[in-house]
């Protein structure tokens, strides 16, 4: 067998073109075979179909048709976030232009751990991370803000804790709201920090009075984390009040804006993030409200000097004489070594859509959430948890037990008809619709509610929930 074709080099584009045709055909055929947002039949049936289609994972003799067959099976069994009834998680449909850019990243395969592997990619990353830091912190700060690219909110939150620990002289106690993302206490555990203190969030957002009491009582150094867009409900903590308490008590502030951060792009919704620029560090996830293929995370720092904690020296990547001779030192921009140029799809998206284009997408999904909430409220068979803050709507069939709510969700998943999430709030279980698809229309929302009502009715007729 001759050498399989490579993706880059002079022959790369010619080798890729027919393969891309095969991929696109398989995506199309796979989606048709699925016929809905999720493959029908539940985990066992889906796994069996996948095993059947893929066959032996490492055969002795290779199969030239594997690309088409495996991609077809992958697509047929996918949960498609571009389907209007796929609305469970902060799992966005990626923009075609971002996905196309990601192909170029894969083909050229630059790695952002040294300049000689990523000459243009490193400059593009420097430009984009600086611009996004300015977007968050505004121009004219006394200290220069910066940001680094991460694999997502989990890594950003971990880095934020690490930078806080280093800025505080080697240890820091985390003070989190009860509404905070699980990755924050987990990062404290990973970094060997003291047991986090949890501040109540009785109405879904961190209570500033309780925070004040905790900050008064606890010895420093302390790192407070607030959330701008909780995973469950999209709640935004009272950022200015929290920031004021942190200033009074000399605590550091991290804001986890993994979900809500992209409201910055919207003239209509930007004001909800007032106070974001007071944080020492900010998490932003553009594979949520940003329509990027995974991974597209960011950690912004108010003072670029904080990033010196990540400095690292390895002679084969950033030899001192190379750095002195002007080769950019990239190793201190991440805890990873080999690193994908996730910046390419971001740069292409930001420039293709502009702030206005992104803001319009944000406005659209926020408007869809309001419309869906209005449909729920007008329907006698449903209770609405609260008006949506961002693009998440929590609702439940009126009078249902938690077990029925859970069973309705699983029945819809098993049917492959709709993908809804679940959230426990105020002591009850809710169905969660996270609307991230700007193409979802009013008819889709009505269809979603209708499906839930119909499924609830069949379960109520005595079909055993499982
Ligand atoms: C999703 C989310 C995270 C984690 O981000 P990943 O990209 O999944 O690692 C952190 N915080 C909040 C508030 C989130 O919604």
TrEMBL record:
Keyword rRNA-binding: no
Alphabetically ordered keywords of this record: Aminotransferase, Decarboxylase, Lyase, Pyridoxal phosphate, Transferase
Signal peptide extent: none
One Gene Ontology term of the molecular function aspect: transaminase activity
Coiled-coil intervals: none
Cofactor or coenzyme needed: pyridoxal 5'-phosphate
Family, per entry: Belongs to the group II decarboxylase family.
Name recorded for this polypeptide: Aminotransferase class V-fold PLP-dependent enzyme
Native species: Streptomyces olindensis
């Amino acid at each position: 067998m001759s050498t399989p074709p490579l993706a880059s080099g002079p022959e790369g584009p010619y080798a890729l073109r027919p393969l891309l045709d095969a991929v696109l055909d398989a995506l199309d055929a796979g989606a048709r075979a699925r016929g809905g947002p999720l493959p029908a039949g539940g985990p066992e049936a889906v796994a069996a179909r996948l095993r059947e289609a893929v066959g032996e994972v490492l055969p002795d003799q290779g199969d030239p048709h594997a690309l088409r067959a495996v991609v077809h099976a992958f697509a047929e069994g996918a949960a498609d976030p571009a389907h209007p009834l796929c609305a469970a998680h902060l799992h966005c449909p990626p923009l075609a232009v971002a996905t196309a850019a990601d192909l170029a990243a894969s083909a050229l395969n630059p790695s952002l751990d040294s300049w000689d592997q990523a000459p243009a990619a490193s400059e593009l990353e420097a430009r984009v991370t600086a611009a996004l830091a300015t977007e968050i912190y505004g121009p004219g700060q006394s200290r220069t803000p910066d940001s680094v690219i991460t694999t997502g909110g989990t890594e950003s939150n971990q880095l934020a804790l690490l930078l806080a620990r280093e800025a505080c002289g080697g240890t820091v106690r985390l003070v989190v709201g009860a509404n905070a993302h699980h990755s924050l206490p987990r990062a404290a555990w990973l970094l060997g920090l003291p047991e986090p203190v949890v501040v109540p969030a009785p109405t879904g957002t961190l209570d500033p009075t309780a925070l004040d009491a905790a900050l008064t009582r606890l010895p420093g150094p302390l790192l407070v984390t607030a959330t701008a867009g909780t995973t469950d409900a999209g709640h935004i903590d009272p950022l200015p009040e929290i920031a004021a308490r942190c200033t009074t008590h000399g605590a550091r502030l991290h804001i986890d804006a993994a979900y809500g951060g992209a409201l910055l792009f919207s003239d209509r919704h930007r004001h909800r993030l007032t106070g974001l620029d007071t944080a020492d560090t900010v998490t932003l996830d553009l594979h949520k409200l940003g329509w990027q293929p995974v991974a597209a995370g960011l950690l912004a720092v108010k003072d670029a000097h904080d990033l010196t904690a990540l400095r690292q020296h390895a002679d084969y990547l950033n030899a001192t004489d190379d750095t002195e001779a002007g080769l950019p030192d990239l190793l201190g921009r991440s805890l990873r070594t080999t690193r994908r140029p996730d910046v390419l799809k971001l740069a292409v998206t930001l420039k293709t859509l502009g702030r206005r284009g992104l803001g319009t997408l944000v406005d659209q999904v926020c408007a869809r959430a309001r419309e869906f909430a209005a449909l729920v409220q007008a329907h006698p068979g449903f209770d609405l948890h609260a008006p949506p803050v961002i693009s998440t709507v929590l609702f439940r069939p009126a009078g249902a037990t938690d077990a029925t709510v859970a069973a309705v969700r699983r029945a819809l998943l098993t049917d492959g008809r709709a993908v809804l999430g679940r959230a426990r709030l105020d002591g009850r279980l809710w169905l969660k619709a996270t609307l991230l698809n700007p193409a979802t229309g009013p008819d889709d929302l009505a269809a979603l509610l209708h499906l839930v009502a119909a499924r609830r009715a069949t379960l109520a007729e005595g079909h055993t929930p499982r």
